[in-house]
Amino acid sequence: MQFKTPEEYKPGDILISHGEIQMKIQTISSEIESYFHGKNVLIIGVMKGSFMVMADLIRALHEAGLYDLTVSALTVSSYGSQTVSSKRPTLKHEIDIDVKGRHILLVEDIIDTGYTLKFVIDELLLRGALSIKTFSLLSKPSRREVNIDADYIGFVIPNVWIQGYGLDTDEWGRGNPDIIIGPIVGTIDK
Ligand code: IMP
Ligand code: MG
Questions:
Q1: Which pLDDT belongs to residue 77?
Q2: How far apart are CA 103 and CA 25, in angstroms?
Q3: Most buried by CB count within 10 Å: which residue of 12, 136, 169, 190?
């Protein structure tokens, strides 16, 4: 998908529509199904932002024929709202399942600086995960501080603040079925 430059967007514009998201999830879910075919997979959502894509992805995986799965989630602490990213994330809510010896599919909403994803992968490996594949609906490579990317990426987007489809601006906007441009950075503060 082709995006415009950040300056060409204004708050409220649709960046990615619900329909475009669904089509992308369908394509990626058949790739994921082929990869995990015959394996039991533990799907771990990084909450809270990924709850909506998690639901759609798991439905799509089912339709693609991936039935042997376990669903879990964890929450990583984050500080601030738009501008501050946590360089030292911590686990806020634990996984309810022992990851030792498991094949894991990690589900993220967005990779921004990369600190969150790096932290979660390291933590799961430390706990004895057998293999980890990562899915992120969105990626903002221009913001990356840690050299990391997901194995499956939905959309590579420009450096714009977004909300909707599970993503929030200070808890606002998660329920929007589309991904839209959020308020201008700095206009919302905690
Ligand atoms: P990272 O550790 O910097 O990669 O941060 C990833 C987390 O920051 C994501 O899981 C989101 O919760 C949040 N985030 C990053 N960019 C945005 C955005 O544009 N809108 C909403 N949340 C975002
Ligand atoms: Mg998140």
A1: 85
A2: 20
A3: 136
The model's pLDDT over 114-159, given as tens digits with 9 standing for 90+, comes to 999 999 999 999 999 999 999 999 999 999 999 999 999 999 999 9
The number of the ligand 1 atom at minimal distance from the alpha carbon of 118 is: 2
The one catalytic residue among 56, 68, 96, 112: 112
Asked whether the whole model's pTM tops 0.85, one would answer: yes
Q: Would the CB of 116 count as within 6 Å of ligand 1?
A: yes
Catalytic residue list contains 189: no
The identity of residue 7, as a single letter, is E
pLDDT in tens, 8-21: 999 999 999 999 99
Ligand nearest to the CA of 54: 2
What's the rounded Cα separation, in Å, for the pair 39 and 45?
A: 19
C-beta separation of 117 from 88 below 8 A: no
Chain centre to alpha carbon of residue 56: 12
